[in-house]
Structure formats: C-alpha cells, structure tokens
From TrEMBL:
InterPro entries given in the database record: Acylphosphatase-like_dom_sf, BLUF_domain
Domain of life assignment: Bacteria
Protein name stated in the entry: Sensors of blue-light using FAD
Source organism per UniProt: Halopseudomonas salegens
Pfam family, one: BLUF
Amino acid sequence: MTELVRIIYISRATFDTLPAADGVEPTVSRILSVSRRNNRNNGLVGMLYYGDSCFFQCLEGERNKVEALYRTLLKDKRHTDLKILASEPIKRLSFPDWNMKYVPLDQSMSRLMSEHGFERFDPYRFDHHLVERVMQLMQGVPDPTEPTTEPRPSAPCRSIQLDTAEQAPPASEGSRTPLLLPAIAITISSLALLISLSCLGMQLGWL
C-alpha cells in the first residue's frame, strides 16, 4: 500500500520582493506556475504561503516523491534557511484539489499573528500549535490566483411582432366550403355566357 506523507517546511526568500501583479509577487508567481505543473505530473498536492519575505509550504503525496521534491528544493537559489517544521505520515490529503494552492498575506493571517504576539509573519518562531493553526487557516482561505468561472449572461429576450396576415389563424376546412360555392357558381355562369356569345357570333358571321 502506498504511504502518504506530509512535509511542512519554511524558508526565506533571497530575492527582493516586488509589487504584486494580480495579487502575487512576480517571482512567487513564476514559482507557482512551475510547481503546479511539476506537482500535477508527479501526483503531488500542497499549499504555498508567502509573506514578509518568508515561505511556508506544505507538500503531500507519496513518500518517495515528496522527499525527492524536497531534495530538489534544497538546491533552489531563490530561497535559503530551509527548515522542516513537520514530517509525518497521513491517511488523507489536506489539499486534494490543489496541485499548489497559494495563500497571500491577508487580514486573517495578520489577526492570527497578533493573537500570538507576532508583529509580522515569522514562521521560524512558530510552535507546533501555531503550525496547526496556520494549516487550518490555509485550508479555509480562497486562492486568488485560481480563475473563477463567471456565469454567462443570458441572451436578451426579443419580442417578435407578427404581421396581421401572420397573426390570423388559418381557416378551417368547414369555413372554406361556403366561400368556395359562390366562386364555383360564378365560374359556371361565366362559361355559359361565353358559350352563348360564341354561338351568337357564329350566327351573325362574326366568328
């Protein structure tokens, strides 16, 4: 049976933090893009938090794949001072729908830090209890980098006006019969008149 594990580690960014674009620091945005692609290919999930130049990351999946990824992260020059806060087997994934969920510094995290006497996000001072609190917070906060599906506006209703001729219902078979009888009688009378005139014309030598 495949063993699932979770690693929670922290590190410090070695790059200068730039103004966020679409809610994400540019270098962090590139890290997210690559992490999501690689994690999807390796069947890994997790979460990344970045605030006050510090990373707080959770990785979950098969033990050999998680440990292999962490060894790769140790070589990444974009961060330093890597420290594992937790490494443990798990029965189920905390972030099953996220190849790499991103959580930015927000008021919820600021309040949590204030409750524990922190003026800024400093994961190197976290105890086990605070690590668990941060994990719980991460699970409930939405990811601003994930696109949302907006409902499509419904097509406007168009009022179609019919011509008077189109609005009139077709005549029934019963209503057509009285109209046809006079027309037939007129046609027969006209033919009889034409025949009489033809005979008269022949007698007078007109035809």
